[in-house]
Amino acid sequence: MGSIKQDIKETYLGVYETAQEKWSDFTQFLVEAWPILAILLLGLIGVWWYADPPPPRHVVMATGQPGGSYHALGEKYAAFFEKKGITLELLPTKGAEENVAHLVDRKDPVQAAFVQAGAFKPHDIVGVQSLGTISYDPIWLFYRGTEVNTNDYQEIKARSRYFLNSKISVGIKGSGTHAQAMKILKENGFEEGPNFLYLSGAKATEALQKGEIDAAFIVDAYEAPNVQALLADPNLHLSAFPRAEAYSRLLPYMQILKVPAGGFSLIRNFPSRDIQLMASTTNLLIDDRMHPALQFLFLEAAREINGKATFFSERGEFPAFKNTGLPQSPVALHYEKNGSPLLMTYLPFWLAELVNRLIFVFLPFCALAYPILLTLPGYRNKRMRRKINQLYGVLKSYEQELTNNYQPETRDEYLKKLDLLEYQALQLKVSKNMAGDYYALRTSIDYVRNCLNRGEHPYQFEDENGGV
Fold first, then answer.
1. Which residues are registered as beta bridge partners of 282?
2. Beta bridge partners of 257
3. Which end of the chain, N or C, is surrounded by fewer C-beta atoms within 10 Å?
4. What is the mean pLDDT of the segment spanning 403-416?
5. Contact 155, 190 (CB under 8 A)
6. Helices (H), 254-329
7. What is the pTM of this model?
């Protein structure tokens, strides 16, 4: 039992002495190498802040008309960002044209926006990228009067001409609704009519229900209040798109949506037969200078908010990365293939971003600093050996003076010089692997001192003939 306790005690003492020795070496290393370490640390901080700055805590996003579905969607995004510690400021606008103008202006604080596909000219836009599409925007054409037989092309054409000469709302100029309505009319050979009205979705809905206008284009989500109000009105009709396939070929960004009979209302059996609708998609556009971490956060918001199953989309269908109309962000390409970074899945956003930045900076820093750090022990040993060699040089000069020109009256003076030299040697802080050189110097100093103490002529001798 005693033997075991003794072994444990000796092991403990050995570990303690080793740790103490290592700590002593480390502190001495810091004392000698702190300038180099300080430079490396400042380099790391500089790279961290300038090469990979932290994401801003405030982001401005252009949405759409106040009270519209884009603004409501923006409020959901703002709530998601708030949970992550980021303030998402929503900027109401008149529509797609204004949203794109904000993003194109490099001095504008807006960094993100909802924009309908087809509502902008991609070739005229610079400095803007897409994070993908996040929802369908069906094109609704509601009208009053006799219901049109969608299988009779001549009747459709005659009715279209009637609408052109009637009061029809085609959306506010600059909005996605106006852009889609004009493209559809243009593809059918119609120009802008004299009685066109440029009403917002809410005003067009109110006017159509009151009978103040005859028809209205509305491009909005199925769940939007305006769309739901018009679908529920039995006095109104919805125009289908029997030639949807042709539209999708002529306008490649267009998507075909199918609605089964009774899909909108089983009680009214509305629609009375299977129909096809056309739809644009909502693009999530960003300033191409947006911080990558914020881009991942927008994509996560899109997955959580827009990835749910809706009337027209399946669960997980959005965000989608086809037919975006603009170059995709590299972050979006990464997200499409690999999803969000692993750290964002398990850590809070701020902590995941901090760790990610540290890794991003630390790895290349180590690649640069590691060879430098490897040379530090050798550098330290060289410095210490240089100091020891300097003391050896002084000792050698003393010994040379004593050999060539020894005077007994100078003995005490040289002893004082040797004492001072030994004191200088005692001030050296050497590592364990330099201990041999250190004590060899001390021994050499003692040797010269002993030679001085041997007698009257310590550095002289007589040969066999009595000469000196």
1. 116, 135
2. 277
3. N
4. 81
5. no
6. 292-306
7. 0.69
